[in-house]
Design goal:
Layout: E1 5-8, H1 23-34, E2 38-42, H2 47-56, H3 59-62, E3 65-68, E4 73-76, E5 81-85, H4 93-103, E6 106-110, E7 115-117, H5 123-132, E8 136-138, H6 142-145, E9 153-156, H7 159-172, E10 176-182, E11 185-190, H8 195-206, E12 213-217, H9 223-228, E13 231-234, H10 240-245, E14 248-249, H11 257-266
Parallel strand pairs: 1-2, 1-12, 2-3, 7-8, 12-13, 13-14
Antiparallel strand pairs: 3-4, 4-5, 6-7, 6-9, 9-11, 10-11
Length: 267
Amino acid sequence: MAYELLVMDLDGTLTNSEKKITPKTKEALLRIQREGIHIALASGRPTPGVMPVAEELKLEEFGGYILSYNGANVMKMDTKEVIYQDIVPKEFIEPLYQAALAFHVGIISYSNSEIIAGTKTDEYMQKESSIIHLPIHEVDNFSEYIDFPVNKCLMTAEGSYLETVLPRMQEKFPELNIFRSEPYFLEIMPKNIDKAFSLSRLLEYMGITRKRMICCGDGFNDLSMIRYAGLGVAMANAQPEVKREADYVTASNDEDGIAQVIEKFIF
């Protein structure tokens, strides 16, 4: 099979434990782009948090793509054209804020320049801030402050507790797509939005089939695209369920697992 599109999650997949792309993996990715194979970065990060990685891999030069906010925003890097996007309906912001207060969990969303925290900053928000390099802005009234479109909200708490909150949130908000990306992150997305759905829009735009696409990931939010891809790849460090669903398990993100996929299935 001649693959035309390589899709990668960022944290835990493309980047190593230090949140860096290793030289071996970077060279392999630049090489396939020179050969005419496209790259898409599919991440739960907001668009500003994906941009530095896209720039490092020269996606603008080679015409790559980024799917930020778990696919709620799909952008073509060379033209900055937004191919597809969806937003959390405004009428849900206040009920989500009240639910966060009732469940005693953190809640954040994003602007182009900052993380907006509706509750007191916790260690998980700080983790998010360090990953995406955006400052945290605590606001007095989350729902009043957010008077602009947002692609997602995020709830934060210790993993075992957040696991109990998930089904209650799903029952309370059936009109939204709610799932965990990390044990301590509860993603709140527009209905039907996930990485697979947004990739279907991208494939339609590119004029290629999913059989020509490799998708690599490690987290719960990567499951949909790994199932959808022509070749679904899990990292060795992936969640057990992700590895069970994958067509192939590569080396870990600290062992150049992406470079291994490129050598095995592209070259």
